[in-house]
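Board notes (copied after class):
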Amino acid sequence: MRYYRIQKYCLLFLLSAPFNPGIAQHQEAAFALLDSISQRSFQATFTYSSRSPQGELEATLEGKITVQGNQYRLTIDGQEVVSNGQTVWTYLKDANEVQITDHDPEQKAVTPWTIFANYRRDYTLCRFDTHQENGHVYDSVELLAKDVENSLSKVRITVERATKHIECAQVTDNNQSRYSFFITNFEYDLKFDKAFFSFNAEAHKGVEVIDMR
């Protein structure tokens, strides 16, 4: 179903690159950069696009993501996906239906925010490079999945060095489809109460609840 696909691939990553012979010395620097992001809460609006393995544009959407540790709230294409780190709610606005599942901490990366929680475990560094554009310096980290069964085989995250803001993220899945997330607004260290990362059924009159736990 469409909502599983969007949950699976939304917020961040792509690009093929040859192996860098100096990769060992760069890996800790690259992971330190990712650490500096994953240890802070952040919120971003983004433009999302997907392309088939043949390079054909399949969809362009706008969305919003909020992440705090292993908790997140994603809004895109009439859907909300919310997790408090233990439970995941997937709400379909048009159907006024919410599906409830358990969060699986051992699951291989299926979303960009799962990648931020487990990149040291699930990925190895393929490339870490720097470029300048319009007077800004950007660092890019490209990761390859250690497990061929991982649904996201390649991830590329580009960060502005001065602000540590994510500028874009690109993903290649294990079917060679590509998903890109271009950030239009990014904020760190916002404060959210506990209720923000859970689904409030009382706020959605008549919602059908499908508990799949």
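Comment from the instructor: The chain has one domain: 2-187. The radius of gyration is 17 Å.
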